[in-house]
Amino acid sequence: MSAPKTFPDGFLWGSATAAYQVEGAAWEDGRGACIWDTYARTPGRVHEGHNGDVACDHYHRYADDVALMQKLNLGAYRFSTSWARVMPDGRTVNRAGLDFYSRLTDELLSRDVVPWLTLYHWDLPQALEDAGGWPSRDTAYRFVDYAAAVQSALGDRINFWTTLNEPWCSAFLGYGSGRHAPGRTDGADALRAAHHLMLGHGLAVQDLRSRDSSLTLGLTLNFADVTPADPQEPGDLDAARRIDGLSNRYFAEPLFHGAYAPDILEDVRELWPADLVVDGDLEVISTPTDVLGVNYYSGNTVRGVGPDEAHAAADQARADGPASDSVGSEHVEFLALDVERTGMGWEVRPQGLTQLLVRLDRDYTGPAGTALYVTENGAAYDDVPDQDGFVQDDERLRYVREHLGAVHDAIEQGVEVKGYFLWSLLDNFEWAFGYDKRFGIVRVDYDTLQRIPKASARWYAEVAGSHQVE
Ligand code: NCW
To answer: Tell me, what's a Pfam family for it (predicted)?
Structure first.
């Protein structure tokens, strides 16, 4: 048996959720409609027409959920606020909505769980989508007003603030491939959305900083491990460069280097709206931040394909996963290799996380003095509960153990990673997959809404309590 891996003092052990995925109470206390309410009601968009109306009912059960976190030795809870709860029309503050997050924050603090707040986890108020959504520049300014409203209610008690979760998904899945709300499919709009999300991020960071210079501010990006099918083959190397660029560097370059990378701009040249970037935008977007949240789950092996093969590859790609039919993936085939996969069909690649953290530290966060946190990692599997609802989820436990080992390897290589948030605390509404895919370390019985910790939760509680992975 190998020696236990001990994590540094102060390492934050947490779990994560998002408002639309867990809260439910979709029409209570004045909450307005968000784009996921609409998308989920559009036939054919979400598995079996599921929606977030009830979800895990966290809105009413938050006190029990926080008690459970404490029982599981969790030191931090990463949650998101629902813009449509705080501002039902995207513009006007709803006090009752803010009050929920105030109660949740107080509950967390009373149980010594550090609150980590994400302002936007994909649930744009429908009223703002109707006014143009993220492809409209005005949405970035509305986001700043929303951030300010949340800060004025909770800024006295919350230190960690991240603006956006995975803007790649909001822009490219929401406006490019249409796999996520609002389900639009226009490549140029996806690029507009991406730019305005980042602009909103930068403006919000500046505004929050001016309100309270002591806040810890940043955002969370999703990253993937992208490898060429044949590293000797120029076409495959270029396919890997392209997908790495569009998924990993698209946001990191403007944020940390104040410019879109020339090779990526070239890849999307035909779609690029000439009037998109206004003077000064990139200075705003690259406003220094304190933390970068890293969401990492998987990776892809890619192959370059000629124009003749491109159509067949595109058809295959639609079956292959989120990145494969998005903007810029033309002429790239995502290989369906016979390797270990999770219940989402995502390849299990723990070593990719070590490489990613080392690379981010070298290319972006190290020079900028920005701290790294893994803000999401975890896995969905086809859980089989016993008669009491208990799940012996050995695969998930092994997935998390291996990825924590990968984080530890990065720390041993000198990368300062300051925390890890397991996705997710609870089984929840998994977007287009509805309640069919379960990421939780705690099972939710959707008939009774009972919470039943799985084997992975018991194990993670020991890890969080001891700061050690055996
Ligand atoms: S779908 C997705 N997820 C899951 C979701 O439940 C959560 O809200 C998200 O933050 C689990 O974690 C995130 N992320 C999409 C990942 C897209 C991967 C794209 C790969 C690019 C090569």
So the answer is: Glyco_hydro_1
